[in-house]
Amino acid sequence: FRPLHSILLSSYFSLSFRNLSIVGCSSKMEKEDTLLRRILDGSREVLLEGDVHLKAKKAISLFEEIETEIENAKGLDLNTQILPLGCSSLSLETSARPHLNVVAPGKVMKRVGDGVNSEKIINTLHALAHMESWAIDLSFDIVSRYVHENMPLQFFLDWLRVGWDEARHFVLLSDRLEALGAFYGSKPVHDGLWESAMETKDSLLCRLAIMHIVHEGRGLDTTPKNIDRLRSCGDKKSADALAIILNEEASQKAALCPF
Question: Which domain holds residue 17?
Answer without folding.
Answer: 4-86+102-256
